[in-house]
Automatic annotation (TrEMBL):
Residues 24-212 form the ABC transmembrane type-1 domain. This is Amino acid ABC transporter permease. It is found in: Cell membrane. It comes from Deinococcus aerophilus. It holds the Pfam family BPD_transp_1. The lineage of its organism: Bacteria, Thermotogati, Deinococcota, Deinococci, Deinococcales. Its main location: membrane. It is a multi-pass membrane protein. Keywords: Amino-acid transport, Cell membrane, Membrane, Transmembrane, Transmembrane helix, Transport. Belongs to the binding-protein-dependent transport system permease family.
Length: 223
């Protein structure tokens, strides 16, 4: 790469920056929405998989297996392009959030289930002997400890969601990647906008990693 080419790349990256900065909140918003919606759904799925009711275990296991065994991109296509054939039409934003939420919930459920199972059974038995109900034992004994165990994986899931939001660009959601593509369509210079988008994904993920480490230190002091 000569000096002129480097100048063109840097110039295109700089010109793309305002557009991509405007799209960054969309990317972060999709990731946070999927995480906030996926957490309670993932918790419910985890409880279903730990349930003594065979039907609940079966349905939840199939859900987790299907989501984890198929690409997220295919799931987005099924929800956004497939559902209209059944009379269900969703906007790109709603379709994208639903796809990301279902995907996140499947992975979060496994994290939550593993964290719950990591708590020694003796603690539950002790709580029962003290007269606590199953719900009280879960709320007061199991979940506070399970949250500390699950925190790193939960944080990693959020960081992964930030990167996965790039896939909703295929259904015309104008997030970081789609914004870079729109800039490229005007300028015909791909390297600068794509590099800028990559650096912004990295910056968001790095910021979330800093928050994750801070939360881990705070939780570790609380033990």
């Amino acid at each position: 790469m000569n000096t002129e080419q480097l100048h063109l790349v840097l110039q295109s990256a700089w010109n793309a920056l305002p557009t991509l900065l405007a799209a960054a909140p969309v990317t972060l918003g999709f990731a946070l929405a999927a995480m906030l919606l996926g957490l309670p759904l993932g918790f419910a799925v985890a409880l279903a998989r730990l349930s003594g009711v065979g039907a609940l275990r079966g349905v939840s296991s199939v859900f987790v297996s299907f989501i984890r065994g198929t690409p997220l991109l295919v799931q987005i296509f099924v929800i956004y392009y497939g559902l209209p054939s059944l009379g269900i039409t969703l906007s790109p934003v709603v379709g994208g959030v639903i796809a990301l939420t279902l995907n996140a919930a499947a992975y979060l459920s496994e994290t939550i289930r593993a964290a719950i199972l990591s708590i020694p059974r003796g603690q539950r038995e002790a709580a029962t002997s003290l007269g606590l109900t199953g719900a009280q034992t879960m709320r007061l004994i199991v979940l506070p400890q399970a949250a500390r165990v699950a925190l790193p994986s939960l944080s990693n899931t959020l960081i992964g969601l930030v990167k996965d939001t790039s896939l909703v660009s295929v259904i015309t959601v104008v997030e970081l990647l789609r914004s870079a593509q729109l800039v490229i369509a005007r300028t015909f210079e791909p390297f600068g906008p794509y590099l800028t988008a990559a650096l912004m994904y990295w910056a968001i993920s790095s910021a979330l990693e800093v928050v994750q480490r801070g939360l881990e230190r705070r939780f570790s002091r609380g033990t």
